# Entry
Amino acid sequence: MTAKSDTIIIGGGIIGLLTARELIHAGRSVTVLERNNGAGLESSWAGGGILMPLYPWRYPDAVTALSVIGHKEYPKVAADLYKATGVNPEYVRSGHLILDTDEYEQASRWARDFSRKVSHNKKASFFSRIGSKDISRIEPELSENFLNAFWFPTIGQVRNPCMMKSLIKDLILKGVKIIPHASVEKFNTSAGKVVSVETSIGTKSAENYLLAAGAWSATLLEGTGISLDIEPVRGQMILFKTEPGRLRRIILNNRKYLIPRKDGHVLAGSTLEYVGFNKEVTDSAYQDLWRAAVNMVPCLEHAPVIKQWAGLRPGSKHGVPTIDRHPEFDNLIICSGHFRNGVILGLGSARLAADLVKNPLANKSKINTESPYSIL
Ligand SMILES: Cc1cc2nc3c(=O)[nH]c(=O)nc-3n(C[C@H](O)[C@H](O)[C@H](O)COP(=O)(O)OP(=O)(O)OC[C@H]3O[C@@H](n4cnc5c(N)ncnc54)[C@H](O)[C@@H]3O)c2cc1C
# Structure
């Protein structure tokens, strides 16, 4: 008989897996239950891996606080994962250009505050407003139509499928059990605690439970008498293939972005669609994304599009995740609702969620202050 784990994590996306990593580093034993035939195949696979929220000054402080941790720690985490597993998450400090926006006051205030929090080297600039000459120096392939931009030279990216593969391998090497085809269907509770979960492969139990089921989290919680404001929000992407190095910067214009990978792939994203749990791709999204991409970088007109996909983000109010103890069952921790930013927010969220698991007396995480629950 295999030993019972200290913690069961429900959902093998980036949030569940990064929390598993925090817990295993703290000496805990962890089992991840994943409904699919492998972990990391939903939103965390589909995402772009930009390590900064889009237009970050538009978000509440909680998102900035979590982004600070991600910005500071991703380079080291990615390097550690690569060293431990031989699988490179492809962290690249590409720099980020935000084109033609007039929110200079808000952006510069946010950037000043953020760079102070990440202890950015004062000699180098974290943020500047630049004109067309500098835009074409920084990214020569950009259309000449753009007259001004915000430039964030230290913003990086990871390549989601590689990040997930590396993380999974690291966890397995460290003894985490990741069980595929294990769909959690119900929490069994008694005297203010979760005592076990019913799954498609039988009943499983542990001391603690962490719910990190992404867009599916709210559905699972309904059975425990609370409703959580998390809903699926579809995001579609298309993938161009160019020669390596053709495009180097992450570019954002009018809510659409381009992310160049090291090997010449360029992701163009993304849509924001409230269509329930529907992961189909559409022709209209393809056309929109293609037009926006070519408008930014005209040479993409001649590059083949080799793939289109969709993922379901765990949409939440203002993009603020819930990192909290269940109001009735104190050994059930919820970490979900990262919406458009689960990769950059994941490191900080995982740390807070792991703290709640490790410290039964801690109530709420420091970052999420308002209760998001309503009793059904
Ligand atoms: C197109 C797109 C672009 C994005 N770009 C970025 C970006 O550039 N930067 C960024 O930071 N973020 C980005 N995101 C957002 C980011 O990908 C998500 O916020 C993040 O992946 C959410 O992680 P998660 O682990 O909560 O959810 P998921 O990755 O969806 O993981 C949840 C897991 O739970 C499993 N599960 C569900 N129900 C059950 C159950 N009952 N039992 C067992 N397992 C279950 C699912 O199968 C899944 O594997 C993007 C997302 C999309 C779709």
In short: Residues 92-155+231-317 form a domain with the D-Amino Acid Oxidase; Chain A, domain 2 fold (CATH 3.30.9.10). Confidence is low (pLDDT under 50) at residues 369-376. The longest strand covers residues 230-241. The CA atoms of residues 15 and 346 lie 6 Å apart.
